[in-house]
Input
Amino acid sequence: MSKKILVVDDEQEIREIICELLETQGYSVSTAIHGVDALEKIGLDNFDLYIIDLFMPKMDGMTLIRELKQIRPLAVIVVLTGYSSIESAVEAIQAGAYRYIAKPIKSNELYELVKKAIDYSNDLYGPLQKVIDSGSFSIIPTGPNILLGFTPEERAEFYGLGRVKTYESGDIISVSERKDGSFIIIESGDISVWMSNSNFDYLKKYDSWGEENIILESSIPVNLRAESPVTLRVFERKKILDFFSFKGNVLLKRFIINISSSLFLKWRKSVQRIVMLKLVTHND
Output
């Protein structure tokens, strides 16, 4: 079966050139004119490789990359950019893109890069495909997973323990600014998670961060960055423990199970991203 590639660029000429070149190599190529169009096609089909221009109307390439990585964390992405926009391409790679290719497109360079990217996709998806529940990404959550099994009244009481904080796009949400032993639930907006100048996770509405602090009374040295206007709720460990001491062991056990499940899913995503980083680092 031929490998599927989605080319996203608002310039018709660029789309047609890339499409024609890759189809001569036996690839199945689909195109999208901007990020919104691309997300619609991504929702209907799976692709082995995404070639994305950074500068497009309606939804730019960086926004599309963030959205795509939330839907398909292992998506292999090649960024299209002009020579004057190399810094943006580097930023895209830090956000999870595989490589970049500069315009104007050179056929031999394109062939070589796409071959490497497809090989990378095969290596990545081969060992990890079985641990990814691809169907789960299409489910729209109705509330935080950390509060699964809570009644509406219990959820409302729990939310009352938290303090609401807002951030503008680009603001840094430093872990050191939060009280030790706290965790957060995202009420709106998108947050990227960074460690040692590398982005390794994204958070969106109903996601949580810092659950391990409730158990360990410690914090992971990471920074969170608002990628859009963000509203979150901050919970202190002591207030949570006092809440469950009043509510009883049944609800506490349910909460601990939710924490364990949440931490496992985050661990799995981190392993996937580490594998991606290792492959990129060792790939010529």
Remarks:
- The longest strand covers residues 182-188.
- The two ends are 26 Å apart (CA to CA).
- The first helix runs from residue 12 to 23.
- The CA atoms of residues 131 and 268 lie 8 Å apart.
